[in-house]
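Open question from group meeting: does this chain pack into something compact, or does most of it stay loose? Before anyone orders reagents, we agreed to write out a predicted structure and look at it together. Recording both the input and the output here so the notebook holds the full record.
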Amino acid sequence: MTAFDRSVAARACLDAADPATKCALTRHYAELAAQGARVDLGAGAPDPIGEPGRPERPHLVEPRALPQRPLSTPAGRAALVHAVAHIEFNAINLAWDAVYRFRGMPDAFYADWIGVAADEARHFTMLQARLADMGHAYGDFDAHNGLWDMAVRTAGSCLERMALVPRVLEARGLDVTPPMIAKLRAAGDHDTVAVLEVILREEVAHVAAGSRWFAWCCAREGVETLPTFEALLARHLPAGLRGPFNLEARLLAGFTAEEMQRLGGVAA
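Structure tokens returned:
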């Protein structure tokens, strides 16, 4: 039976700097896992978190340094596709880092995040193709590193990672993507709309995986989910979450009605 060392596979995907190589490795290991390959658990503690492999471009800047471009212009639409592509590229690394970093979790945890990595690689490839149609390539616009910054801040706790990356940063995509789709549809960019609709639908399941494993980690540590989530938000995001929220998508992604009511009451 084919076998692979899960930590070695995750490290290889994390370290790959070339996007095509990162996506190809991700597809390879995800296919092995999906086909029932025997997965070795790896040994020893993970290395301290560092920067994942990434190409020299895009140039990373502070979020406030990124210009606002209207979606009514071709440049604005290309910049949006690039920004989403950068999020998806980072999401590949985030999924593999969860596989690599958090030892001793159930097999289903690793299966979930290997599957998420494969989805994110496919999303990135779709967006890269759309950028090419627009006359651009990944790296043509500046980007920020907010997703990976949070990965660094939560590297010591699977509970905190599941709370603050899938359920905060990635869940934000559930809120902002429908208005983007509406604006792009109004601008006549139906090709980008088609890509974003696929991503939105599949990201619900990714956030749901975060909700599921956050709840599992809370049960393991003997703490309640809602007060624990609120305490983490107060510590890491004292200004609260920005609304409005996509209530339907968030409920499908594992947020409870009570949780959304509480979050809505403190939204910035």
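Observations to bring back to the group:
The chain has ten helices and two strands.
Residues 117 and 206 are 10 Å apart (CA to CA).
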